[in-house]
Design a protein that fits this description.
mainly beta, four-stranded antiparallel sheet
């Protein structure tokens, strides 16, 4: 809950919200859960409304369906201030984050924090600071330049176990580039400033247009890496993308599409305005459960969490 930082839990097959933690952290802007549900990362602003704080907490033992107790206090540690970007690894055991030493805007450092043993290791540094990261698996971290309409974007990958920090260029020169690697890293979903969605094969260097229009960050890969689920706008107003969408000048009303990236076959799974009984949903932060029975997403318009039963 953004206003208090309290954590809630519910079953997926039976919505029954219960408060899980009592620790008060006002105005949490982002939260990530990892380490098999035993860790939480919360990001918020200090009272100066400028300094970004990133807190890593250990969650008390979870009792499904039980109310919180007075002992459900979250204790933990702090990562460096003003972390610019943060991504959770595919197995949710590690966190990759980017920050500038001494708040300098001249360079950026990339480090991995292990949620299981609280150890940190630096794996990246760069004089360019405007990166968006992704951590699809423990052998691959992707770094994509922040997108803007009409500006060529670039995507690179690093092997976190390689201490040379070598950047391997994957995509280049695509205006408004946003990217999403499959969990095995063998395929890259990407979109441009026309919101045209494509899949790139790093081994053959071939690209296939998927025939739907959306941003890659409004999608999620399945485990195998052959299917993506995407929040796809029913109507896309003429504007500069993705800038207008990021800035909140344009909002979408989505359908959920399932796309087989090998065959190119696409089918609509749900029209969200019908599913929600008349509420426009601009879906972000899509996620699948382990068995891929449920699709979870957040409505960008109001930050409410939704669930779609795929069974």
């Amino acid at each position: 809950e953004k206003t208090t930082g309290n954590i809630y839990q519910t079953f997926a097959d039976k919505i029954e919200e219960r408060k899980f933690s009592t620790t008060i952290i006002p105005m949490v802007y982002e939260a990530f859960f990892g380490n098999k549900g035993e860790s939480v990362i919360m990001r918020y602003l200090q009272e100066d409304s400028k300094t970004i704080v990133t807190f890593v907490g250990a969650l008390p033992k979870e009792f499904l369906g039980a109310d919180t107790t007075a002992s459900n206090e979250i204790k933990g540690t702090f990562l460096p201030e003003n972390i610019k970007d943060l991504s959770l690894s595919g197995d949710a055991s590690k966190v990759f984050y980017l920050f500038s030493q001494n708040n300098s805007e001249e360079s950026v450092i990339g480090s991995i924090f292990n949620l299981t043993n609280n150890k940190k290791v630096q794996v990246f540094d760069s004089l360019f600071i405007e990166w968006l990261s992704s951590f699809p698996n423990n052998k691959m971290i992707t770094l994509t330049t922040k997108p803007s309409s009409g500006i060529p974007g670039y995507m690179y990958a690093i092997a976190p176990n390689n201490k040379n920090y070598n950047l391997n260029r994957i995509l280049s020169g695509i205006n408004g580039l946003t990217t999403l690697a499959s969990s095995n890293g063998k395929l890259i979903l990407y979109s441009n400033d026309n919101l045209s969605l494509s899949v790139y094969h790093p081994d053959t260097k071939a690209s296939n247009i998927l025939g739907v229009k959306t941003l890659s960050e409004k999608c999620v890969w399945n485990k195998v890496g052959d299917v993506v689920y995407c929040g796809t706008p029913k109507f896309i107003p003429g504007s500069q993308y993705p800038d207008s969408w990021y800035q909140g000048e344009v909002s979408f009303s989505d359908q959920i599409w399932k796309i087989d990236v090998k065959t190119g076959n696409a089918e609509m799974v749900a029209d969200l305005i019908i599913m929600s009984r008349g509420e426009d949903i601009d879906s972000i932060k899509l996620a699948l459960d382990d068995d891929e029975n449920y699709l979870f997403f957040v409505n960008k318009k109001d930050s409410f969490l939704w669930e779609l039963d795929l069974k």
